[in-house]
Amino acid sequence: MTTTTDFVVAGGGHNSLITAAYLARAGYEVVVLDARREMGGGAATEEILLPGFWFDTCSTGHTLIQVNPLLAKDELGLISEFGLQYLDPDPVAHVVFPDGDRFTMWLDLDRTLEEIARFSKSDARAYRRMLDEFDAVKGIYGEYRFTPIGYGPSLDERLAGHPMGTVWMRRNVMSAWEVIRREFESRQMRAFMAWMAFQTAQPIESPGSGYLAYSLVGGRQRRSWSVPVEGSSSLPKAIVSALEKAGGTAITETLVTSLIVEGGRCVGVETSNGNQYRARKGVVSSIHIKSLVEMAPADVWGEDFLYGVDTYDEGLSSFASYYATTAAPRFPIEGGEVEPVSAGPAPWAEDVIEFGRGLRQGRLHRPGSFLLFATPTIVDPSRAPEGHHTVKILSLAPYEVPEELGDWETGKDVLAEEHLRILQQCAPNLTDETILARKAKSPIDIEAANPHMYRGTIHGGDRGLAYGGAQRPVPGWAQHRMPIPGLYQTGATTHPGGSITGAPGRNAAMVILDDLGTNIEEVTSK
Predict the structure, then answer these.
(1) Domain ranges of the chain
(2) Angle, helix 176-183 to helix 187-197, in steps of 10 degrees
(3) pTM of the predicted model, to two decimals?
(4) Which among 118, 194, 178 has a CA at the least distance from the CA of 347?
(5) For 27-59, what is each residue's pLDDT tens digit?
(6) Spelled out in words, what is the top-level CATH class assigned to the domain 2-44+61-85+229-313+459-524?
(7) Which residue from 42, 123, 194, 327 has the highest number of Cβ atoms inside 10 Å of its Cβ?
């Protein structure tokens, strides 16, 4: 069977859906193909354990997309027309330190500063100063992230006119750890900031990660851990609604296996069942760049591009476990308890550093394990039966199973049990009796569930200096146009990278619409 449309979009993650929706809004005939049962990629909410328990199997917090013009200006009507809603949990986060002390981050800045002052008054001043300095430049960073590479000034050029521009140029190439140890003196605040900065799976020693020490804390302090009502999948569902209203089509359970290249141009894709979907105007891919190059002969890519893909660092692999429970984790604090949507243990910074190093070497450093406990049912009870909860523990682990775990088939349950015991130490009310069902996913399981999550990575690749901005995914090919004419790339392997930002999707739409002689402003003003 052969189907022909203006654009064929291979992959149904939130970024490729965003690109598709803008193209459909512009009046083009668009079809989106996705291998999974539901569209959304990493923005998925699934019933993986018991009936009525809906888990965000990858992303839960959507803080970063809130400043995307897609939502900030509601360009596709996702909020006003298609019912997308977000909640801002308070407290924002809660961590437990190795010495048993605890720290709670609140939306009320003064209350957060009071918490910090328990450890160091100097650190409270440093925290406020960091937020103020970030507020002064966040607009510049936002413009950079939500503009395709080459379609505006570079980040350094944008910063050049700012009073603290050279300071931020230095911070852009520093590591998060260099920033944290310079700004904070107490062991506790260094640990908390390291826990926050590691939440995009970028090692805190990585050159170029310094910005994360500001942006993640700054975004959460202002907006909390923005949680979509009825689950992470609410975002792609709203985008699909916008796509379909504009005349586009979304097809699930359809695996793209190869690109169709004729006369040196990409003219469509072929699927695992032998069907062809041909494109009059172009093909848009959100397939992981490492897999994409295997879908067409090597000679059509060029040696330089293939070298760039071969040397592209896929990043750190993830590990996750899920629990259907009769209680939400409650964390003791002085004078009572808190029930945060986002929490975790905050190991000392030296252990977080060693954990990151170990992952690179295929081993686990247990005291430094990064763990994020997510319980969105605390603010959104629609995700579970009345009085019940979904609890997710997100971590990182080597793709190749560490020797002490034997194999991932059995080792994943051993590691998940370790993580659960840490959660139970932090929140003693979550006893074994409160757990109705559980499931662990190794990096291999994560990749099997979504091939775009190459080697179990969920952020599309490392975002260090060698793989960000104009280097992403390959130097010279950061503008979403691929070496094969007619083929465009979006998704987490393109600027500015992974997480739920929608930036790669909107940026790709800007480039494609420009090639078609129009722009997003014209398209969304109709």
Answers:
(1) 2-44+61-85+229-313+459-524
(2) 150
(3) 0.95
(4) 194
(5) 999 999 999 999 999 999 999 999 999 999 999
(6) alpha beta
(7) 194
